[in-house]
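Check the record.
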Amino acid sequence: MRRAAFAVAAGAMAVSLAACGSAKQSGGGSSKSSSPKKGDAITVGLLLPENQTARYEKFDKPLIEKKVQELTGGKGKVVYANAKQDASLQNQQVDTMITNKVDVLIVDAVDAAAIKNSVDKAKQAGIPVVAYDRLAQGPIDAYTSFDNETVGKTQGEALLKALGSKAKSGKIVMMNGSSTDPNAAQFKKGAHEVLDGKVNVGKEYDTKEWKPENANSNMEGAISALGKKNIIGVYSANDGMAGGIITALKQAGISNIPVTGQDAELAGVQRIVSGEQYMSVYKPYAPEAAAAAEMAVDLAQGKSLDSVAKDKVDSPTTKQVPSVLVPVTALTKDNIKDTVIKDGVYTVADICTSQYKAACDKIGLK
C-alpha cells in the first residue's frame, strides 16, 4: 500500500468496537490490576511477518509507532524487526528482543505454531506478548485482529452476489491462504459456510506463503485441469494472490469473471476500478494497530486490559485470551469513496493514475 495519508482520522483510530463476552479477566492473560511496573519510558518489541504484503511497512508499523508515542507522551519507543516470511528468523528476532529486555512484545507470527517456543521464552522472562493479526500459540496475554470468519463470509457473499443466477453454471476455484497462518483457515471456514451447496468448487488450493507467484502457478494448474470455458469465478483470499490469479486468467484469455480479494491494497483497488477484480475486504488498520499498542502499553505498565479488550478468544494452547476484534467492510467500486478515501488511506490521485483515469471517470471517482 502506498503513501497513505496517515491522517487516518482520529475517529478511525478510536477503538470503540461492539464486542461480545465478559470483560472479566481470565485464562489467557497476565493483565491483572496492579501498580504499574513501569512508567512511560517503555520499550515495545514489534515483530511483523513479511514485507511482500504492502500493509505491514506502510500501515501497521507506523500506526503502532505513532500510537505508542501518543500513549506514553513521547517517552516510549518501538524496536522493530521484520521476519521476511521466515519463521526461524522470527524466532531469532524474539530471542534477541528477550536478550535486550524489551518490556512487551507485539508479534504477528509467520507461523502460529512455530512461534510457540518463543512465546514460552518471553513468558519465562516476564515479558508479556500481544498476538497481532494472527493468533499465535503459546501463553499470549492479548490478541487483536479482524473477525476472520466474517472476512471469509464477506468474500463468499460478494462472490455469490457477483455470480447471481450463474452460480452453478460452471466451476469456481478457491485460492486460500497459507496453511501455516491460522487466519487463512478462518477465512476459508467462513467462505465455505457461505459457498458450500451454492457453487461447484472445481479446484481448491492452500497457497504456500501467500505468494502471488504461487497463486499464479496454482491458477494455471486449475485452468489446465478444468478448462478455461468452465471457470466462472475465483475465490481469492487476498489481493496479492488476486493479482497473480488475474495474470493467469488474462494469459489464458479468460476475462469478465469475478475475483475476490482482501486488504484493499492499492493495486487491488485499481483492479476493482478497472473491473479486473470484483471486490476486496477493507480492513481498517488504524483501530487494529491502536488496540495492539494500547494493550501492549497497558501490559508493560502492569495495568488491566478490561477497558480495551472486550472479547475473549481461544487459541489451540491458551483459553480466554483478552481480545479486540475489528469489523470489516466489503469494498467494491461502489464504495471506494466511503471507505479507503474517506479514511485517508488513499487519495483519488493515488488510485486514479493515468492508466486508470478513464475507469475512474466512468464510476465517478474524481
